[in-house]
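Quick look at the format.
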Amino acid sequence: MNELIFIPLAGLGHLVSAIEFAKLILNRDENNLCISVLIMKLPLDYGVQNFIQSLTSQPRLKFIDISLDEKTSSGFLNNHERFVYDFIDGHKSNVREYVQNIPRLAGFVLDMFCTSMIDIANEFNVPSYIYFASNAAFLGLCLHFQALRNEQNLDTSKYVNSDEELSIPCFKNPCPTKVLPKHLLDSRLASTLFFDGIRRFKETKGIIINTFFELEPFSLQTILDSEIVPTIYPVGPVVSFAKSGHFRNNPSEIESIMEWLDEQPDLSVVFLCFGSMGSFEAEQIKEIAIAMEHCGQRFLWSLRRSPPKGKIDIPSNYNNFEEILPKGFLERTKGIGKVIGWAPQVAILSHKSVGGFVSHCGWNSILESVYFGVPIATWPLYAEQQMNAFLLVKELGLAKEIRMDYVVDFEGKDNQVDIVSAEEIEGGLQRLMVKSGENEVRKKTKEMKEKSRVAMVDGGSSYNFLGLLINDVITNIS
């Protein structure tokens, strides 16, 4: 059996997606391949440790802990801008030590941030592939800005805080600079290191993208026509169908949520959830509460406590929601709403009573909403989520806007925090939940739901691309 090495970044959005993709390969190829997922535990938990502890190795899927000792791992935190890259580089000897004992090594599948591990693949004379857990439009954006900076020597920091709109190859519409990820624009060391990694994509045998051709035909075709990168393999939607939240919710909490949803009419509930890092300050929570109460919409709201100001950590659950919500809110909305902590998102989105999703626009959440046919109202927070919101609203027509350019201040540097008003929130909800016959977004989302499922089965676009990838891996072994 030939062993394929997966090296994901140990953040939930990267790790879960990579593991689900590994399972897709093994389900498709039963005779040639086995996979080892190498786990590098971050010194900050970010909610990942419980998930890692829930993993169990199977005959052809192993999880190998190659983590550094806590003191060494935490030492990388001293240089904030270099942290991710130094942290990954620090694991090279552990990867080398594991790989040198493999009798039949097939190659490496690397997270987009783990490109320095290409060096290890080259040492052992095996191919490497990138697993890009985001979308094709973002890949195109990264490649475009990498060329602007490294090949045309353009100072992209001039676009920071600009109102310009740019023509970008993977977008049909002019793209406002205010929705572009800040690390693509600024001139800090972290940005330079990021683009150094993007440049190395061209050294690999292929880029695997968690998207599908029917969802992003324009962006994918643009990348294919450019011939600036190796072979691309759109293999999505790669979605985890495990009981999401099982490592954070106790069974009685999940049962209570599902029982409440069972009592609601079909497509009547709007689900508010902002991802593993999503939380708001008291003033913003008040505006959301006013909007939910005033619009009269049935709702399920995942509400979580922010970390202390300036501390980067995952949010926690409230012991008592009354300490943060307006007085009497829970009582006044008792008939139409339910406030919860951590949400079992897949279980909720797949429920027939859920008709809308107020989302931070993380790519995994977007794919889940597409797969289950739930239209989105956009409220991005960080990373590439503002660009994802623009993609959904303006390029694909699969979402309504609450905001597209909202950015959360994790570091607590801004004295004046941006507040989305109750009126804005309510307006977005009304556009999202308008009756089905008048709602073009709902119609498009329903159509894309069917296309997403067809893409993954025999004869579908992603099914075929996965077959091509597996053939390429096996051919390289031969």
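Next, a different chain entirely:
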Amino acid sequence: MTQSVVVQIGQCGNQIGCRFWDLALREHAHVNKEGLYDEALSSFFRNVDSRKSDGGGCAVGESIQHLKARAVLVDMEEGVVNEILQGALREVFDSAQLLTDVSGSGNNWAVGHMTYGSTYREQIVEKLRKAAEHCDCLQCFFIIHSMGGGTGSGLGTRVLSLLEEEFPEVSRIVTAVYPSADDDVITSPYNSVLAMRELTEHADCVLPVENQSLVDIVNRIKRMAHGEKPGSVIKKNSTIISNKGGLSGAEKPFDAMNNIVANLLLNITSSARFEGSLNMDLNEIAINMVPFPRLHYLVSSLTPLYMLADVNVPNRRLDQMFSDAFSKDHQLIRADPKHSLYLACALMVRGDVQLSDLRRNIERLRPSLPFVSWNKEGWKTGLCSVPPVGHSHSLLALANNTCVKPTFMELKERFTKLYRKKAHLHHYLHVNGMEQSCFSDALGSLDALIEEYQHLDATKDRFIPDAIRLSIAS
């Protein structure tokens, strides 16, 4: 069994990371009834025996003593990390995994990337090495951060480049939360475009998540929770699978949104954490999904997004779940893959689903999905036998699709509005090591990325749908 390390940076990254660890522990507790430290747990948790003077870990097969998350938590403000340390997850982390400051990055990419990146470089590398040393076979780093804030975008991408320097052979999968157009951080377009250049250069895969998409999903679930349609009433506190931080009770503003992103991580790591008839190795995601190194932005969609309130209402048919995964309502970024070009697609299924069900649905959906001519068989599939808590099955679809281009074009437009007037530029240029060329280089990198997607889109007119296959009566 391989291990992975989660690196959560900034307020947003740590809040999402907190939800991930909470839900992951709940999933393992649901399956692991004997209290033994098994291979599934070892993929993301260490089992530490406090009785050992060196704080050493226990071997697989021994009783669970103290589970420690394979994680590094970084924030240049103390608030969120302190909150985690005072909450239910306080035992899951220790001081060797944490790095905080008090002043924050002031919504300035340059402060996070240049100032804090230089000041804390050695400490960050040391914590990453410690986390790696506890792994027998380190397979992947999961980096979680926002794009709009200073610490998330700036220090987050600095940590990403450090990981490439220190662990060049280990996969780097980034979950990056993009701000909405009405974001209250005025400088978020600068921060996002400066961060985009780093993501394009140093990540193996990026899972972009848009705040507005999360808001839309949560609002849709709230409407359903009030029972607009007979038979579609859902549990009010059941955003994905969580019983805490859901849609009722003393929730915090972003709890429901963070649950959705945490479940993206739960699903993408399910094959690494549990057994299945067709497990998908995390390294296989980049190998199969990224035909060109810079075009590694994957659109993710999740289904189901809620639990039904009435247990007598039958689960949606399996085929409907596959259809939902290709609908815009279930995507974590506002885009339309069906009217853009697919480079590759991955389906990660959890629960009691047969390989024949998976193949049947791929054959059913394939004719309606425009794939590049040279990769019509570009499907990657994974089957994990353990479903999310409260569900019989679930599905995560990952699409490498040119539909991300409008998101990047909108980001460029918002950046240009500020940059044309040189508004707020002085805040960045006062930071040691930051030059105006950083802005022009970042914009140039984004332009080149958009152009690569446009070049592929231009070939879409030559797309010929598969011929309709004859049904053979049995």
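The longest strand covers residues 342-351.

See the schema section for token definitions.
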